Amino acid sequence: MVDSASQINAAIADLVREYRLARGFSQEHLASLCGLDRTYISSIERKRSNISVQALAKIGDALSLPPGQMLNRIATIIESSS
């Protein structure tokens, strides 16, 4: 059984990658827009980092993804993987 934290991290990884690619952003470009390091974006997408709420908000802002929509999409990803 997969724990909740792992499910959330996996859903966030999928969300970040999906929206980044849909906007045609490289990891480096997204990181620059967020004020984060490219290796951090990479580690998020590879499910290797526990992302902070602050970093998630920065990424959402850079991707023009409102917090409510972001959380709904994360919930949908988790539900569809169960």
3D structure, described in words:
- It is a single chain.
- The chain has helices spanning 4-22, 27-34, 38-45, 53-62, 67-81.
- It has 5 helices and no strands.
- The N and C termini lie close together (10 Å).
- The model has no long low-confidence stretch (mean pLDDT 94).
- Helix 2 (27-34) packs across helix 4 (53-62).
- It has 82 residues and is an all-alpha fold.
Span between termini: 10 Å
Instruction: Tell me the β content.
Output: under 5%
Radius of gyration: 12 Å
Mean pLDDT: 94
What's this, in brief?
The protein contains five helices and no strands. It is mainly alpha-helical and 82 residues long. The longest helix has 19 residues, at 4-22.
Tell me the layout of helices and strands.
Blueprint (H helix, E strand, L loop, with lengths): L3 H19 L4 H8 L3 H8 L7 H10 L4 H15 L1
Which descriptors would you attach to this protein?
about 80 residues; mainly alpha; 5 helices; about 75% helix
